[in-house]
Amino acid sequence: MFKNKTIVFTSGTFDMFHYNHLRMINYARALADILIVGVSTDELVMSYKDKPVIPFQERLQIIEALKTPDIVIPQHTLDHTEIVQKLNIDAFVVGDDWWGKYDYLKDLGVDVFYFPYGVGVSSTNIKKSIHDSYEEKLKSQQETKPKSVKDPLLIGK
After folding, report:
1. Which of 57, 65, 105, 126 could form a disulfide with 110 if both were Cys (CB 3.0 to 4.6 A apart)?
2. May I ask the CATH class of domain 7-144?
3. For the whole model, what pTM was predicted?
4. Are 113 and 92 in contact (CB under 8 A)?
5. Are 115 and 92 contacting, i.e. CB atoms less than 8 angstroms apart?
6. What's the pLDDT band for 19 if we cut at 50, 70, 90?
7. 151: phi then psi, degrees, rounded to nearest 5
């Protein structure tokens, strides 16, 4: 059925979907006759970093809504050996923030491409920016808040 077709697999958390996610998926699409995209489950993500902001089912639906993937599947493990063998994957694309992590796939005959993800553009950095901005706004509000006699902390002082 898929003879003489190049099957490419890419995967990620795809939390707070952004431009570099799209660029990496489009890059993988350009290499593929058939593109399979794996979306990491919340449980998998929490095994190596904070829980995603966007729940797994919603992240999965976002990727399914793109026109580029042919197949979208849940990703339950960072070890891609089984999926490569079951789905006859020819190539794997992942962000270069994972540089070297998937070189073991080369021993299985898979071409591994570390996509140049870009400096500063990541869901982690977006979350940090939002958090820092919120903290700064709170601090600013506290510094400019007038001390009112009605303030329960000031009663009796």
Report:
1. 105
2. alpha beta
3. 0.78
4. yes
5. no
6. confident
7. -65, 115
